[in-house]
Amino acid sequence: MRDVILLEGIQVPAALGVTAAERRMRRPVVLDLEVVRDLQAAGRSDRIGQTIRYEQLFEVVADIASSHEHKLVEALGERIAEAVLAKFDVEAVTVTVRKPKPIAGVLDYAGVRLTRLRETP
Fold it and tell me: Angle at Cα 50 formed by Cα 67 and Cα 96, nearest 5°?
């Protein structure tokens, strides 16, 4: 069984771009987060303490995106995935990062989708 918590269409400003000038502009990025976690206990009990609060996930994403500089969307996605795995009891995380209008008039978004699994010792 694979249960997933979804946060889609997160929009946060990010210092993202290959050049320093681009990173200074702090343009918004659009992110989706898929967090794999067993949600059966939360579904049966209807108690928030048995799941992950959406706001907590959002805060991690927003903090990583806005408080660090990233040259590549790959680096931003990797940092978010690492932080989610480190801070929450989850099996896996998929992060989609989309940079709006990276080439004016040519395409709507460019981005990546990364999936990372919790490593077992």
Answer: 40
